[in-house]
Design goal:
Strand content: 15-25%
Number of helices: 14
Shape: globular
Order of helices and strands: HEEHEHEHEHEEHHEHEHEHEEEHEHHH
Largest sheet: 9 strands, mixed
Number of strands: 14
Length: 397
């Protein structure tokens, strides 16, 4: 069973959230166990654990080093799945403990099923798997890094430095066929003072089993549960029939289709941002989930706004699986943010190698150093998530 078989429109759950800026002080987030969730949907029983003194980065680095030192040299590891994390895998390939890594894309669905069946050593995934799948298939969700997703567009006559404001309701109506022109009154109403060309919208969505589709529909469902995904977020969605709509495989396919089709709108991972901008694609300022003073807030994806979103989640579930999308307590948080996951077998014939590589990948001195993450606009795990990720490594035997 994989993620797409387990989506239900059940009770939402999140880590407990408070208003916070992601400063050095905020890095020392307390470690606790909250609800294990699938996207914004409950995935199983509540897991509890005693709260202990928050670990320091130094103590966590010692744990990571012990796994890295146990990595058996000459080992090869296969990885495939998420096309969002794939550019980071390419940054890692051939370096450090990724010297034996053989990565590929193919979509999060491919990564999940490959890890579950044991045909892959590591499955790359944007969504995490729910408790029922973890227990049934004997796999773990191991967070590796922080990522995000953009809503890109190609609007002739509009500078790519001009960022249109969009929200979940409008995006639902675009992908549902109710809004068909970029200068629709609903779009103009939240973009006062901006002259938007009268260009027909070309909605582009993923054709494969996609974690990006899951992230995108999580945002759409969270902001408007009556929209195109009334049954909740999904990796594979039966998209409404809209005149001119297009389907593409992978983030690279979405990007290519958007470049080739003026008027397009597409959801593309932040690891493709620089290349997308270089190819002439703009991206939106999205309304976030904050409902306090000054709302609605329309936020661009950058280091500060991604950090703000992540920092609002003070507690992490023991499974590592949590939705970071549309925080209600991050005034400046960008709303489509997520952990990138390695899905791995718990009882693993390559346990030492898998643990060593994953430790290296999440280590802020190694695979999560700026030299690897910044080219793809990723961020390292906060301390509370890093603590949980290390505890998950201990379960791989």
């Amino acid at each position: 069973m994989n993620v797409r078989d387990s989506v239900t429109a059940a009770t939402r759950c999140r880590g407990h959230k408070h208003k916070a800026r992601f400063t050095k002080a905020a890095l020392a987030l307390s470690t606790a166990v909250g609800l294990a969730c699938f996207g914004n949907v409950a995935a199983g029983a509540v897991t509890t654990a005693a709260k202990t003194k928050a670990p320091t980065l130094t103590s966590l680095e010692k744990s990571l080093t012990s796994y890295e030192n146990a990595y058996p040299s000459g080992t090869t590891l296969t990885e495939a799945g998420s096309s969002l994390i794939y550019p980071l895998m390419l940054e890692w390939e051939g370096h450090g403990l990724a010297s034996g890594l053989s990565p590929a894309a193919g979509g999060s669905g491919k990564g999940q099923s490959g890890a579950e069946t044991g045909t892959l050593d590591i499955g790359g995934s944007d969504p995490f798997l729910p408790l029922v799948t973890l227990s049934t298939d004997g796999v773990l969700n191991v967070p590796l890094a922080v990522s995000a997703q953009l809503v890109n567009y190609n609007i002739p006559g509009l500078s790519i430095t001009t960022h249109i404001k969009l929200n979940g309701t409008i995006l639902n109506e675009i992908y549902g066929g109710a809004i068909t022109m970029w200068n629709d009154p609903a779009i103009e109403a939240i973009n006062k003072g901006l002259t938007i060309p009268a260009v027909k919208i070309v909605p582009i969505h993923r054709s494969d089993s996609s974690g990006d589709t899951f992230l995108f529909t999580t945002y759409l469902f969270d902001q408007d549960p009556t929209g195109i995904a009334p049954n909740g977020p999904a990796q594979l969605l039966t998209w409404p029939k809209v005149t001119g709509e297009l389907a593409a495989s992978g983030n690279a396919g979405m990007q290519a289709a958007c470049v080739a089709n003026p008027g397009c709108i597409a959801y593309i991972g932040i690891s493709y941002e620089r290349n997308s901008v270089a190819k002439g694609l703009g991206y939106a300022a999205l309304q976030n989930g904050y409902t306090g003073k000054g709302a609605p807030h329309y936020i661009l994806p950058d280091t500060g706004s991604i950090n703000d979103e992540v920092a609002s989640f003070k507690e992490m579930p023991a499974t590592g699986g949590i939705s970071l999308i549309d925080s209600k307590s991050a005034p400046e948080g960008y709303p489509i943010v997520n952990f990138e996951y390695a899905i791995v077998k718990q009882n693993n014939p390559k346990a030492a190698a898998v643990k060593g590589f994953l430790a290296w990948a999440m280590d802020p001195r190694e695979g999560s150093a700026p030299s690897y993450l910044e080219p793809v606009n990723f961020r390292p795990l906060p301390l509370n998530a890093l603590t949980i990720a290390i505890s998950l490594l201990k379960q791989i035997t």
